[in-house]
Amino acid sequence: MKREFYVREHEASLTEFGKYPGARSIEELLNFGLVVIDKPPGPTCQQIDSWVKKLLELKKCSHGGTLDPRVSGVLVIALNDAVKLMPILLKSDKEYIALMHVHKNFKEEKLLEVISKFTGEIVQLPPKKSAVARKKRKRKVYFIRVLEIDGRDVLLHISCEAGTYIRKLISDMGKYLGGAHMQELRRIKSGCFDESQAVLLQDVVDAYKWWKETGEEKYLREILYPGEKICDYVKCVVIKDTAVGAICNGAPLSTAGIVMVEKGIDIGDWVCILTLKGELVAIGKALISSEEMLHGKKLAVKTERVIMKKGVYPETWKKVKKR
């Protein structure tokens, strides 16, 4: 999908401060990076976190979206400082391949009719064993496609909002078909990551050990993504080098510090604030739309989480304040 930007000012980063994400060392990627694991059935997501933390010798790591132990597929793991990206990783849309077993014979027309009832905004009551409060909540199901029907078994491709319980979705659909349950489930996409990017834990172990023993980075670089990879999924605003210091101190972003704005930002949307070199400075919530960010001087983005450490860029705002 082609991304389009409005240009507020024409400016380039000509300073020596900062570093392009693609130029980071392996150590820097391990400190602010993402790895996509192809989770096998069996272990919990917490166990995967623990193994990755130990294998890569990290201080901390966390997964973006829980999968039940029996479920396989795409599990995005944030490494060290990338854990700050959890608000976005956890809320990213998901896609699944699910095998539904219907308890009684059914006609395909009836199945499609039921699927249409559960496409769009739905209301779900989380299952008793879920990790969230058991209250009804709304979730969006973008599409449910029938891939194959074999007797009473139906293979489905489901795209939905984060936090949608697929097992419960299938059970609820089954009420209109004489009963149904989920037999198998695999997550094939989480945010901007799909299963083509997912690797086995053993691949991570081999690549890391090979780098440690030989210094060869090739295989580890193939599976480590800079934290900025989430910007493939979230709308972005590019700021001036002179505005970076203030944002790193938690200040909201003013339109005066903006160079480029991605089209399609609405009030309340998550926004990635980037330097001219493409580094992620912070994530925040839009206070105005993309179009409004192009004109005047007003607050554009409320900083929710600062990602970049202080001091990477000079704090020019302090000098201005002293004057």
Q: How would you describe this structure in keywords?
A:
9 helices; alpha+beta; 323 residues; globular; Archaeosine Trna-guanine Transglycosylase, Chain: A, domain 4; 33% strand; 10-stranded mixed beta sheet; Alpha-Beta Plaits; 7-stranded mixed beta sheet
Q: Percent range for helical residues?
A: 10-25%
Low-confidence stretches: none
Q: How many angstroms does the end-to-end distance come to?
A: 46 Å
In CATH terms, the superfamily of one domain is PUA domain
Largest sheet: 10 strands, mixed
CATH architect. name of one domain: Roll
Strand content: 25-35%
How confident is the prediction overall: mean pLDDT? 93
Radius of gyration over C-alpha positions, nearest whole angstrom: 22 Å
Element string (H = helix, E = strand)? EHEHEEHEHEEEHEEHHEEHEEEEEH
Report the structural category: alpha+beta
CATH domain fold name of one domain: Archaeosine Trna-guanine Transglycosylase, Chain: A, domain 4
Contiguous helical run count: 9
Q: Mind telling me the CATH class of one domain? A: Mainly Beta
Secondary structure: number of strands? 17
Which word captures the global form?
A: globular
Protein described:
It contains nine helices and 17 strands. Among the domains are: 5-19 and 228-322, Archaeosine Trna-guanine Transglycosylase, Chain: A, domain 4 (Roll); 93-190, Alpha-Beta Plaits, CATH 3.30.70.3190. It is an alpha+beta fold and 323 residues long. Strands 2, 3, 4, 5, 6, 7, 8, 9, 10 and 11 form a ten-stranded mixed beta sheet that branches. A seven-stranded mixed beta sheet has the order 1-14-12-15-16-17-13. The N and C termini lie far apart (46 Å).
